[in-house]
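Blinded run. Sample ID left blank on purpose so nobody reads anything into the name before looking at the predicted structure. Input follows.
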Amino acid sequence: MGAWFRGAVRHLAVMLVIALPFLITGLLLAGTRGLAVGLYVALAVEGIAWLLSRPILVRVCAARFVSSSQRPELIATVERLSAAAGIRAPKVAVSTLPIPNAMAAVTPRGGLLCVTEGLIGMLSPEELEAVLAHEIAHLTQPGRAAATLAAVFASLPGAITAAAGSDLYYELPFRRSQRRLWGGRRMRHLRNAIAKLAAPLAAILVRLSTSPRGELIADARAGDLTGAPTTLAIALRKLQSLAGRIVAPVNPAIAHLLVIHPFGGPRLGQLFNTHPSTPERLAALSDRDR
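Blinded prediction complete.
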């Protein structure tokens, strides 16, 4: 009951933060009647974002859905682990991104699980299974939908500033992968100001939606699903060794959905780091294996 209550509170907090700009605007323009209108508009926008969350996240991750005929071993592993976890198997997508990472999100009509080609090529089958088990464990956590909603809205500032050519928010290749839609050198100060003002607000939204404890719980649950906590520990060590060294051309607002935080250095993307330290995760896994 406690986990479900915390998840519900987290979800309501995220919805309230998203709704605040609409509520304040309505109140300033038309008083209490405008406040009610702002609430309806906010709920409508949040509903649309939720319905579109799966295609949005797939696009952000530069991924495509795959079938059992295309990736038979991957799909079979996901289905087996999902059955063991007692949930419906999520839709599986594979990203062309070179960074070794994976992501899971609760979306309408079931979950989404995305893995990168870099992850598939780097890990052994047993290590990949352990990472997949970690992500599937997230899909069983109460309130996980809040993390999805937060990712969709928090990614907007990064997308807007990327379209203007700013690279304060993320790694440079992400900006280069985006078509510049507005601004130029003369607009540099404006786009950087947007990034610096919006990043902390977006980070607050992300941090409200999830907690470091959730990662530790997913690690522990993955060990139960595979029966081999040490295998996940080995995979995490490999992923951590490359975190920040391989440039991550992704919006940092989805970092809380990934198995490990992929960004290094002092950029604004570090504000979105909600993961416990890798040594802390490894120590917890080691304790469970004793």
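Unblinding after everyone has recorded impressions. The chain has eleven helices and four strands.
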